[in-house]
Here is the input.
Amino acid sequence: MSEATAPRRGAKYPTTWRRPPFIENPLFRYGSVVLALAYLVWSLGFSIEVDMARVIQGLDRAGNMFARMVPPDFSRWELLYRGITESVLIAFAASFVGMIVAVPLGLAAARNLAPLPVYLVARFIIVLSRTFHEIVWAIFFVKVVGFGPLAGVLTLIVASASFISKMLAEDVENMQPGQAEAIRATGASFPKLLIYGITPQVLPRYLGVSIYRLDANLRHSTVVGIVGAGGIGQVLAASFSRYDYDFSLAILLVIISLVFLGEIFSNVIRSRLR
Amino acid sequence: MTVEEHARRYPAVWRRFNPRETLVRYAWYLGIMIVTAVSFWRLDITWVYMLDAHIQAGDLLFRMYPPDWTGFEAVLGALVETIHIATLGTLATVLIAFPVALLAARNTTFNTLTWTIGRFILVASRSVNTVVWALFFVAVFGPGPVAGIWAITARSIGFVGKLTAEAIEEIDVGTVEAIEATGASRLQVLWIGILPQVLPVIYGTFVYRWDINIRESTVLGFVGAGGIGILLYSEINLFRWQAVSVILIAIFAVVVVSEFVSATVRQRIT
Amino acid sequence: MLEISDLVKTYPNGLKALHGISLAVDRPMVVAIIGSSGAGKSTLIRCVNRLVEPTSGRVVLNGTEITALGRHGLRKARRRIGMIFQEYNLVERLTVMENVLSGRLGYVGFWRAYRRNYPPDDVAAAFEILDRVGLEGRENARADALSGGQRQRVGIARALMQRPELLLVDEPTASLDPKTSRQIMRLIVELAHERGTPVLINIHDVALAQTFADHIVGLRDGRIVFEDGSDRLTPAVLTEIYGEEDWSTTIRKVEEDDEAEGAEAAKGRDDTESGVAAG
Ligand SMILES: Nc1ncnc2c1ncn2[C@@H]1O[C@H](COP(=O)(O)OP(=O)(O)OP(=O)(O)O)[C@@H](O)[C@H]1O
Ligand SMILES: [Mg+2]
Here is the structure.
């Protein structure tokens, strides 16, 4: 062995080493840095330039606000309680309906199951409903069915159905084709294929996603009220606009603990599903 | 083998679940249905509004057509502002989320107190919706994109931080031990042993959250926090539905493009 | 010179993994620790650089009492002890060179490590070691693009970059095929002899231990039950260490293996991993 390396030992080894750059081409490498910097200057310039004075002022105001926020004011707990229960009910109702609606939609959006036209329509519906934020949908539904919790429920049905069905479609598309093929090879019809070849593979994750969505709906149900679609959001927005910051803090604390509980609940159930 | 023996060994009835399991499953189904039914019942929904809902919706869509492109320049400007809010907010997020994640991961935090603080920041950040954060920051900084950027950041810290903390908790301990065994300092272990392992997750969640934030920042304007939402809100209040449809088309285009960008980048990273 | 005296380790769950181990390892000596799974081999080795905190007892390396050091002192002492792991424990997403240079982390400040700006001597030494372990030209490859054997070579290079006064090796070949295992073991032993570094090595494979170690320590339930030259290993001793089993085949097989290997080497076999395999 010493013979094998001895000749090299005298040779000089390089004394510097640079890590190979992430982007080979120096033009691209420095180009992207310059671009990133240019973007920062441009975007920061647009928003901060005008507002720098206000930011400094804002810090002052933030201190002021904190002073007015604490201690939280729970004296109007009845209003708070009514808003929160409404939010929770909206979340429950919407989750279940969304979960049901998601099944046909998700299956229709799986390329390996649905014929092309059905697939395209289903995908378009999913993309369309996912594109617009819950609040936009809430406004739409408020216009259509009027103010109140119904608009909130419909909004969250759209949101959860599109979310769950997208996941479901992905799962069905990623299924191991072998299993479904084996069932098909026994001469099973489409409904039987659904029950034996597909359900066992996607059911656990479908349930998991649905429960996750319940938890997400709980979080979203607290804002649809801002545009009048029911729930605690309405109360919260009102308290902010009336500078009742101590009441706002009380509401926020309740929301945080509720969402926290919901998350624990959803984690427990999901871990038991596995 | 007698007939009875044969029957016992090869029963003619087979069930996937034993009776108790079946019962539990049906109890769950029933429970979920009851909860749903009770929710609807307690909500005091005025169902009659549903009767003409399709007419109302049709009417609304009818009034939105054809799109009125005259104000498109203003829409474009607002759209750019929306993208800026999302991008800057997400950038700020990553800078703040990594240190918070270090506190919130059991294997890198200092002690139980710091761990609790880290976890609390993550939970509080995530529980409050972006729009609610925006209400708060508008009250602090006044209306405008600055409030929007902070709202996006405040909400995303919890998202990015949680995923990063999970990634930190799942890193290969052996590698960290190996670096410690060379006599490296704590900071070096962090930089050489831990960061490279979680970097892909940080990049991935950054891009993923950016895509979500684009969507979120389209509505921040409803509470005055900048972006295209301001325009959308005012056009809706003025019942100018044909202008509304232009804004919706613009939002649709941006969100679809951003989702595509995010998906492509994420695929490249991993 | 490493001296371990009365080393006891009780894990927090109450399990007593080491019952008062005393052991000395002097320069260029390769000491293999054998024993069945759970005997406490890893615990013993990891107590030396205090990756596992010993409950009581002393570890002294060339006059430094490692067990008495504080945080800072321990870091200084760890720089003098190289360690090689079964699962290589490389930073997978970094290049081979960064992994090798990480052996110098104890000597450079944070900023230099951050910029990957190591002293020229270290860089030259890293290139030399890479050459020596048979990875010349691979410095820019990412660690996760290497085979198991190659990764372990990087692991060895990283440990040697520390210019250690002692090498701790925890089952370096357990994840490798028999041939690569031998090459890796030979590499470790040769390098240790070249540099006069004592080696404490955990190994499952009795045959390998016998072939490459000068001295063998048999561990059973946290106690030393055998300590002697590797040529003194007999079926009776193995029974003492591992329990009843027909050991004659194991030991005979060792010799056969070795002859076969010798013959193969004599034929002038030389492959891509030549720098190492050539005895
Ligand atoms: N972190 C720990 N906490 C509690 N007990 C442990 C811990 N690590 C090891 N042990 C126990 O200590 C004993 C010795 O373990 P050790 O890892 O040293 O064995 P080993 O000889 O290296 O085994 P192997 O050959 O399987 O690697 C075992 O009984 C093990 O279960
Ligand atoms: Mg071990």
